[in-house]
């Protein structure tokens, strides 16, 4: 038991040194006063959610790789066209050379795609770097939790109490660093462009009916009103809205029917955004009522 106790003290000392070396703020230049001015030392904004972050990271990386593959295919196609043009036409011999100051539209397009591919590759590497740092802090935080539990089972001494205090500080530091990385990762999530496609309700939708749709993602809100016309078409006062993705929040959609001065709640649903990180527009149809008699159709482009 004595050997075990001193072994825990040794681990605590090693853990403190390891944590100081691995601190995100000391070894990664991620701070931006404008973007993260609220993320100061000692201020934890929320509890880290490693499982949710992992899910979003995997979806984000997959979506970025889809964009990379699509643009790489476009580059290969354009490069093939350029080679064929140089080989088959004498009109484009010197002006289309990559080193020439006078570039054809095709070569300019190739250059543009190449620049975008480099940006995508840097974007992917930055996201991977952030998530790797996040996993390190997550493991250190779990280690601090396990060691606190082990010390709590040992006899209470001055050394053990001091170690528990130090472990608690380390735990707090890891938590802050994880929250810091989560906010830095959110900057790389891009944008969601939502388009209103209308309500689907079959017999439930009648000419003259008026509805209000309220979409919320964290602090971001979108409120729009629509009316069912006599020819069963729908008119909405707003059709498109941009949302900034959030690691922790889901889309909340609320639909109400407007009847004069009264409003009748049709339904409230939540929608996870993890499937929206893809190159193609996603058609989203959600059941507003429990029986699915009224549905809301949206289109999401990332």
UniProtKB/TrEMBL annotation:
Domain FAM65 N-terminal: 16-302
Record keywords, A-Z: Signal
Any single Pfam family the record assigns to this protein: PL48
Cleaved signal peptide residues: 1-20
InterPro entries per record: FAM65_N, RIPOR3
Top-level taxonomic group: Eukaryota
Stated family: Belongs to the RIPOR family.
Name of this protein: RIPR3 protein
Organism, scientific name: Tricholaema leucomelas (pied barbet)
């Amino acid at each position: 038991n004595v050997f075990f106790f001193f072994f825990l003290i040794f681990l605590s000392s090693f853990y403190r040194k390891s944590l100081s070396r691995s601190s995100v703020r000391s070894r990664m230049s991620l701070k931006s006063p404008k973007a993260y001015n609220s993320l100061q030392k000692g201020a934890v904004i929320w509890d880290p959610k490693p499982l949710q972050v992992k899910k979003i990271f995997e979806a984000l990386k997959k979506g970025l790789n889809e964009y990379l593959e699509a643009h790489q295919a476009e580059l290969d196609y354009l490069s093939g066209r350029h080679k064929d043009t140089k080989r088959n036409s004498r009109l484009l011999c010197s002006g289309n050379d990559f080193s020439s100051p006078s570039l054809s539209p095709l070569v300019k397009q190739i250059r543009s795609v190449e620049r975008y591919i480099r940006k995508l590759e840097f974007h992917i590497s930055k996201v991977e770097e952030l998530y790797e740092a996040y996993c390190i802090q997550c493991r250190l935080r779990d280690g601090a939790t396990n060691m606190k539990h082990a010390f709590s089972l040992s006899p209470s001494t001055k050394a053990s109490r001091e170690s528990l205090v130090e472990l608690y500080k380390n735990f707090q530091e890891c938590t802050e660093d994880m929250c810091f990385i989560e906010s830095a990762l959110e900057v790389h999530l891009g944008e969601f462009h939502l388009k209103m496609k209308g309500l689907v309700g079959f017999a439930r939708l009648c000419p003259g009916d008026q509805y209000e749709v309220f979409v919320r993602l964290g602090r971001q809100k979108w409120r729009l009103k629509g009316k069912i016309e006599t020819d069963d078409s729908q008119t909405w006062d707003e059709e498109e809205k941009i949302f900034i993705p959030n690691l922790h929040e889901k889309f909340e959609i609320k639909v109400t029917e407007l009847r004069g001065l009264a409003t009748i709640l049709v339904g409230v649903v939540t929608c996870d955004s993890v499937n929206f990180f893809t190159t193609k527009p996603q058609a989203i149809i959600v059941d507003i009522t429990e029986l699915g008699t009224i549905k809301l159709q949206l289109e999401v482009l990332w």
